[in-house]
Structure formats: C-alpha cells, structure tokens
Amino acid sequence: MQRARIFFTGVGGQGTLTATKLVSLTALDEGLPVTSGEIHGMAQRGGVVESTVLVGYMSPKITHGEADLLLGFELLETLRALCYLKPGGVVVSNSQALPPLSVATGKAAYPELEAVRAKAQAAASKALFVPCRTLAEQAGSAQSANTVLLGAACAVGALPFGMEALERSVRKYLKPALAETNLKALALGAGAAQS
C-alpha cells in the first residue's frame, strides 16, 4: 500500500473541499485506509480553505514538513503552504491567480508566478504549475478547475491511485450533469501535466 499525506489549499469557491472529498472517496473505493480533515475552512468566497487527506495514517493532521503532496488551487495559497511540504515532496498547483481580499484591498502584494515557481522548485522534487481555470473553461465550466488539478496530479503519479479510479469516482460521486465536464477537465489536466 502506498502511504500518502496530501495537503490541499485554496480559497473559498474553488472546490477545494469537493476535491478533498473526491480524493478521499476514490482512495476508499480502492480499499485504502483514509483519514481526512479540514484544517480551517471559510465557506465564503475568498477565504482560505485548507484540508488534508492521509492514506495509511491514523491522524488527519499534517504538520510542517510532512506533506508528500501539496495541491494548490490558488497560487498565493500554494506559496503560503510550502512549509507543509516534506523535503522531496511534490507540488501540483494552479498557475493562475485568484487574488484574495488582502490583495484586492491593497493590504498585500501578489507574488509573480515565476517567484512562486522558483520557491516551489527549491522545496520540492517536482513542482508542476497548470492553468486550471483556462483548461476548465475549455472543458465547459470554470468550476471544474479543481478536477483539472486532480487530473494533473494523477498523471504525474502523485496520487495513491490511477486515472481510471479517479474517473470512476467522478462518474459515481458527482451529479450526472457535472460528470462529463469534469471528465474532460481531468483529461485536460492530465494532458497539461504530460506536455
């Protein structure tokens, strides 16, 4: 069994918790022992959302330096969460910004993509940045950006199961009206990861 500590970070409205649930349910369907937790999530749009999925561990917590995989649904939150990544861990992140309230109100500056990429590459064995919103729109809905990111993570072998298992979960756990768009989003994310 492949053990994994996965740290999810994004902002409210991006589907971070939906992605967390999808990964947890997929791992369960694959017969893997799963513990999941929400570290602190603000349901309103723009608030920071952090959650965890641990496969093969009893605790739902991930402390600094423990995550095997950091899934960043928002670029600045990826930068902020790098401290959770273990040495040699993997980062899969959205390359497109969704500036938080602190940036919108001028209280904070937003980092450049290349600065975030450089810090992620310094901390990780692999750091992949994917234009999730653009690919989600190509799939048919900007709301599928979360599954674009999951498709990219799966394609580089960062999740403890394969693409077929993830596709089965999309069909099984998402509403039928959303499944086709999200299957396209998975494929586009996987394609971006392999290009």
From TrEMBL:
Q: Which InterPro entries match?
A: IorB_Oxidoreductase, Pyrv/ketoisovalerate_OxRed_cat, Pyrv_flavodox_OxRed_cen
Q: Which Gene3D superfamilies match?
A: Pyruvate-ferredoxin oxidoreductase, PFOR, domain III
* UniProt keyword terms in alphabetical order: Oxidoreductase
Record-annotated Pyruvate/ketoisovalerate oxidoreductase catalytic domain positions: 12-189
> Domain of life here?
Bacteria
Q: Which GO terms describe its molecular function?
A: oxidoreductase activity, acting on the aldehyde or oxo group of donors
Does the entry feature the keyword RNA-binding, yes or no?
no
**Signal peptide segment:** none
A Pfam family matched by this chain, by name?
A: POR
Q: What is this protein called?
A: Pyruvate/ketoisovalerate oxidoreductase catalytic domain-containing protein
Species this chain originates from: Fundidesulfovibrio magnetotacticus
